[in-house]
Amino acid sequence: GEATSFQSSTWQPDQLQRSAAAWVQQAASQLQATIQSPEQFLSGSYVGQADVAGIKPTLQLNTTPVDPSFYRRALSNGITLYEPFGGICAGLEMCLRNGLQVKQYLYSDIDPVACAVAAHRIRQLQQQHPDQLSPAAVQQTFTLLAADVANVSSEQLLTAVASSQGLPWLIVAGFPCQDLSSAGPSQGLAGGRSQLLFQLVRIVGTLQQLTVPLAYVIENVAFQHHRKQQIAQLDFHQVCSIIGTPVVLDAAAVGSLAHRLRNFWTNLQSPGKLQVIAQQVVRPSGRHVQQVLHSSRIPMPVAGATRAPSYTANSPGSLRTAWPTLMSRPGSYAFRPGQPGSILDLSSTVQPVWTEPTAAEREQAMGYSPGSTQAPGVTEQQRCSLMGQAIDANTAQFLMAVSLAWVQQTASPARKQPYQIIQSAIAQRRLYPPAVTMAAVLLSARTDGSSFSANQVAASPARPSGSGMDVSSQHVIPFASQFGAAARHYGPLTGLLEHNLSYPQLCCL
Known about the structure:
Radius of gyration: 25 Å
Number of helices: 18
Mean pLDDT: 83
Shape: globular
Number of strands: 11
């Protein structure tokens, strides 16, 4: 009678990488049309009296997508990740699932329950990803920046940037949605919780003024569909004039067991490209809510097809594949007895009881492992409330994966040329294996534009005996000539040529 074994995350990482590459290819013609009509991005506006750190107020973010070098540095060196409305560490899970090493993790949240769950989650994720999240990365997670984002100062951010030692930064933030949600008080941007958006803009704008290599993901409800026109039109237009155009994604489209239609404002990639890629996604088959329920817990049958703008996940006569959006408070309309989100529990010896999804069921529905929020001292209702405020894990993983896939599949010919030269040299036996490794270092680890010094070249190890390769000048010079020609057109390698290294030295290095 127990719930069947269910994989909460829709994809394993390698499976998602392959799928993301296929989606990018499928969207090629539409993406080409997007490139022909370039998107307009906000250039950033920082106006007014500077503070003691020299930072001016931010009126508008720079929404230009990050350069491909951001990804190369992030993949080779790791990142600093900051979650200003930390919750259950959705951003941390997103990065680790996509293979990023988080060298410094920073977290802010004023809710002590969220902080307790975050500490629990960090321990879990360290066990699951020990090579990507070291103890050193979380030493100052809760202390380096203020818990209240309103108190995160320019000075604190300067200190955090200095401690990150040149790592690229990623900010993942789902700012409070209650004032903008149709299920909330509908106060819009005038509401106190919505005002936290402007604190987030200040933080992102500060890092942009510090010229930190910075990507961001900002999440909230798709309030352009709010029933109140003030919120759907005026408030939405104001937000977009400050942080740009969002990508709109429903978690049900990427395999989650609950709808969660959300806006994602990000500079990981252009929103136009991400939206076109998202339209290629078809929900994986065979995922339905009964898989996370005990056999005595019965979901409501599907009475009607899902209506736009949500993804069409449910159809009459079929198993329910997605609940309505999970909320932070109990008793919301869609989860009342007999409504689509309700569950009939037959385990009672007296009579069946109408219930809502449990915390563990909500975790799995949103792509997290069961027990993700089960921190010591945290109640069932507190766990349900935190899940109602969280970013869906499958959606976040998808967003990062397709951004990476786009960069990897659209690398410029100049970027690919050195790799092609190395492959040719290996095929013609002009480059022995240790040099292959060092060439990879030249092309990846030094993508920050720095170069090896002449002293480092002189200290490079000699060719190991028994390599089976002749590295006399007649073999290495042809390769080096090709490699040097490519280097002149590839920025990170030009520093090597400035040292006037001999071609044999370059190849042996």
